[in-house]
């Protein structure tokens, strides 16, 4: 049954545009899809309806045409008039945005000024925002930032130990990412575990292609593993996470590579991909590991070692620990990664229940710890739902 009130969620990249029409009541998107290869001749836009049926249309290769096509399809399906708002995912809100905001010319200008902090992402996000505002100027539109949830980090957690003047002059500090996911999962944990909203402690492990941890104290982010960019912290699909800057400086000297080339290597050719030489995909590596592939085995071991080490660090930011939560594609599905990590955390009293762990995959929520262990849960993330909720709330009560 069609809802009378829906939100369109847009996640715009430089050559792609993900979209989803979400009912305010209910879970299943009424329509979702992806426009890809924008900028190339073979651009295409794929739609998936409520029943899961997909259709593909060839698109003109611009973001403007992709959104025009999307809005035409929404009108045809009588969904355009049901929209109460559009929610845009925006990568970097710097120190300027502590929460989601209605898009105004001043806000758009601020997001544009933050582009140097996220040169690949913010300009692409702005293309989606500018185009959607041009096509549907009367509809309230909202920006939801990946960084906003972490604006509660204390200075000792967000400051790098380099000369302090760089923090003011160049805005070099830790910002953190995946904030929308961490905020959603933290709220779900409080609800599912019936915790006191004013007195709880959680550590959330968002493990996907990009991965980060977040320590949540009484609803607020107090530490996280990503930094000024999403490169810091855990071993990810193609990103190296933490690495000794001295090692990179030495590599630059030895190999003659530029800073740009090393940055490209650290972001796109490292992590699980660089270690295994096989794939950035955890599933593929688990299969190779089961067949005895030495590099796939090492890749998973390095990822798990780093994960356990950083989890220990995040616990130290809390006054109490109510639960450790796994989420994201790996966190929600990989019983192996969860088992290997918890085996390294037995010093903290963690004990896994193997049957519970094996049973939870494919978008299910549930407890995987043994009864005599601190609680460990799997909670599926839903960033789009969080964006839709923020957009709807701000569209109806803009002053809040
Ligand atoms: P993104 O960060 O791009 O949103 P996801 O959260 O979808 O990514 O996570 C993708 C990761 O989840 C990939 O490494 C993929 O292999 C992993 N994954 C998905 N399903 C499984 C599974 N059943 N077992 C192990 N890993 C899985």
UniProtKB/TrEMBL annotation:
EC id: 2.7.2.1
Residue numbers annotated as active site: 146 (proton donor/acceptor)
Known cofactor(s): Mg(2+); Mn(2+)
Binding site for ATP: 18, 206-210, 281-283, 329-333
Cofactor note: Mg(2+). Can also accept Mn(2+).
Keyword Cell membrane listed: no
Residues the record lists as binding substrate: 89
Subcellular location per the Swiss-Prot or TrEMBL entry: Cytoplasm
Superkingdom, taxonomy of origin: Bacteria
Reactions listed under catalytic activity: acetate + ATP = acetyl phosphate + ADP
A GO MF term: propionate kinase activity
Predominant subcellular localization, coarse grouping: cytoplasm
Pathway where this protein functions: Metabolic intermediate biosynthesis; acetyl-CoA biosynthesis; acetyl-CoA from acetate: step 1/2
Site entry: Transition state stabilizer: 178, 239
UniProt keyword list: ATP-binding, Cytoplasm, Kinase, Magnesium, Metal-binding, Nucleotide-binding, Transferase
UniProt: Mg(2+) binding residues: 11, 383
PANTHER family attached to this UniProt entry: ACETATE KINASE, PROPIONATE KINASE
Subunit structure: Homodimer.
Similarity field: Belongs to the acetokinase family.
Record's function text: Catalyzes the formation of acetyl phosphate from acetate and ATP. Can also catalyze the reverse reaction.
The protein, known as: Acetate kinase
Source organism of the structure: Erwinia aeris
């Amino acid at each position: 049954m069609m809802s009378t009130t829906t939100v369109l969620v847009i996640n715009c990249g430089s050559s792609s545009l993900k979209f989803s029409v979400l009912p305010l009541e209910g879970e299943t998107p009424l329509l979702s899809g992806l426009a890809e290869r924008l900028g190339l001749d073979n651009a295409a836009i794929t739609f998936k309806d409520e029943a899961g049926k997909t259709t593909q249309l060839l698109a003109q290769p611009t973001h403007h045409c992709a959104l025009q096509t999307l809005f035409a399809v929404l009108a045809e399906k009588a969904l355009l008039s049901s929209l109460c708002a559009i929610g845009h995912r925006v990568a970097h809100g710097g120190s300027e945005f502590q929460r989601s905001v209605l898009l105004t010319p001043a806000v758009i200008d601020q997001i544009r000024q933050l582009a140097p902090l996220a040169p690949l992402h913010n300009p692409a996000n702005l293309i989606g925002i500018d185009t959607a505002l041009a096509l549907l100027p009367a509809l309230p539109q909202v920006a939801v930032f990946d960084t906003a949830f972490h604006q509660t980090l204390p200075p000792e957690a967000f400051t790098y130990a380099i000369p302090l003047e760089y923090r003011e002059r160049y805005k070099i500090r830790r910002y953190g990412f995946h904030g929308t996911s961490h905020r959603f999962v933290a709220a779900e944990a409080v609800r599912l575990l019936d915790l006191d909203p004013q007195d709880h402690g959680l550590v959330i492990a968002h493990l996907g292609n990009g991965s980060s941890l977040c320590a949540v104290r009484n609803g607020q982010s107090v530490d996280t593993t990503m930094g000024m960019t999403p490169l810091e912290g855990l071993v990810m699909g193609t990103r190296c996470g933490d690495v000794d800057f001295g090692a990179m400086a030495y590599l630059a000297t030895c190999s003659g590579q530029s800073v740009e080339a090393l940055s490209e290597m650290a972001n796109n050719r490292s992590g699980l991909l660089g270690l295994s030489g096989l794939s950035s995909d955890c599933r593929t590596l688990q299969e190779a590991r089961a067949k005895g592939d030495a590099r796939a085995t090492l890749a998973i071991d390095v990822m798990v070692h780093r994960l356990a080490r950083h989890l220990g660090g995040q616990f130290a930011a809390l006054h109490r620990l109510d639960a450790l939560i796994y989420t994201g594609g790996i966190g929600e599905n990989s019983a192996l990664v969860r088992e290997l990590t918890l085996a390294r955390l037995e010093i903290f009293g963690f004990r896994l229940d193997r049957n519970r762990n094996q049973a939870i995959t494919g978008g299910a929520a549930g407890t995987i710890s043994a009864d005599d262990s601190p609680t460990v849960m799997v909670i599926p993330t839903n960033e789009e739902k969080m964006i839709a909720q923020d957009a709807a709330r701000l569209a109806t009560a803009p002053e809040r």
